[in-house]
Amino acid sequence: MDEKNRPLILVIEDNDDNRRLVIKVLGSRDYEVVGVTDGRQALARLDSIRPDLILMDINLPDMDGYEVTRQIRRQKDFAQLPIVALTAHAMVGDEEKSLAAGCNAYITKPINVRTFPQTIAAILKEHRS
Ligand code: MN
Questions:
Q1: Is 83 helix (H, G, I), strand (E, B) or coil?
Q2: N or C terminus of the chain: which is more exposed, having fewer CB within 10 Å?
Q3: 39 CA to centre of ligand 1 in angstroms
């Protein structure tokens, strides 16, 4: 794949180990990956990063992933941007809550490093217009 055509993934994750793992796993495949540690940075940089997909940790400092997702969805340019919730909380209602906030899909942590890139590829393909 052409370097310039590599899908750009924005990962919003406050846990350093988790963020580095996602960057490593996707970055070693056909993806460009940008990582930020909170929603404010993500919102501030969204216009310049223009990702093809967002990986959204739900449990974030200050503003949780649901709120960050709602704020992204309010922006017309990002109304259709695929947002994938990443959460360790496999609690009843979590998936529904993330979908209600505007996420398109939901992945439980810890990620499976073998299947994760395929899952992301499938979601990207599904949302490609
Ligand atoms: Mn977190």
A1: strand
A2: C
A3: 11
